[in-house]
Amino acid sequence: MKVFSLALLTLLLAALWTGSQGVSLRSPYSTCCYKDMFIRKKILASNIKSYQKTPSHCSHRAVRVELLNGRKFCVDPEERWFQRYQQQKKSTSSST
C-alpha cells in the first residue's frame, strides 16, 4: 500500500510540475505535415482563420491552415491558390 501511495504521489507531483513549467508532453513533430495529410483542393480565403509554416525539422515543407470552424489542414506552400492568398493578405495588411 505504501508503494502504491508513493507512486501515486510521485506521479501527481510530476504532473503538477510539468503543468507549472508549461512543458508540453506532445511531440514537436505533431506540428509537422506528412505526405498523406495534404489537402489538394483550394480553400476559400473567407474560410481561413490563420496559417502557420511547419518547423524546419519537419520532413515536408508545408503550411498548416486553420479554418474558421477549427479544422486544420496541411497545404503545400507552392500551391498557386495559397500564393495568391498570401499576397492578398500582405497587400491588405500593408494598406491598413
What is the number of beta strands?
3
Largest sheet: 3 strands, antiparallel
The coarse silhouette is elongated
* Low-pLDDT windows of residues: 18-26
> What structural class do helix, strand and pairing data support?
alpha+beta
Tell me what the CATH architecture of the domain at 38-95 is. Answer: Beta Barrel
Helical fraction: 25-40%
Strand content: 15-25%
Integer-rounded radius of gyration? 20 Å
* N-to-C span: 66 Å
* Average of per-residue pLDDT values: 80
What strand line-up does the widest sheet have?
1-2-3
Signal peptide: 1-22
Protein name: CCL13 protein
GO molecular function: chemokine activity
Subcellular location: Secreted
Structure, described:
The protein contains 2 helices and 3 strands. The chain starts with a helix and ends with a helix. 38% of the residues lie in helices and 16% in strands. It is α+β, with helices and mostly antiparallel strands. The model is unreliable at 18-26 (pLDDT under 50). The chain has a domain at 38-95: Beta Barrel (OB fold (Dihydrolipoamide Acetyltransferase, E2P)), CATH 2.40.50. It is found in: Secreted. InterPro entries: Chemokine_b/g/d, Chemokine_IL8-like_dom, Interleukin_8-like_sf.
